[in-house]
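Ligand: zinc ion. Inputs:
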Amino acid sequence: MIYPWFESLFQQLGERIRAGQLHHGLLLLGPQGLGKQELAQELAGYLLCQQAQAQRCGQCQSCKLFNAASHPDFYQIQSDKQIGVDDIRQAGTKLSGMAQLSGAKVLIIHQAHTMTESASNALLKTLEEPGQGTYLLLTSNKPERLLATILSRCEKNPPAKTG
Ligand SMILES: [Zn+2]
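Predicted complex:
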């Protein structure tokens, strides 16, 4: 589900997905409990949907697998404590293969600031050379703990307010 305060952001990102213009590395920011995780999930489902309109269709094979939490091109990494380099390498290996449903491949990294430095460096490789149709969705409520190199390669949403 999308919380009301994320509706317009989701619509904007959805338009860019349909136009094939979504940045391959998205960083979703905001305080804990804002619903970033849910937003990332919805975006992932949308990216994977084979016939998305304003919403994902919910009917296609991809949507059915996603709803059943068994989509073969969808991965998530989450850790309460620390995300290690092995977690990232494992995900990188999966992402480097062909998409099984011939659509997008999506990796969500929840609480991305819990990545160790070597995990972050491993992720940089994927951020620098994402495969065709590969999307990385990172969430964080402590972006100041992310490596500058990660920050600079991700598009931040909501965008930082200026002035
Ligand atoms: Zn669908």
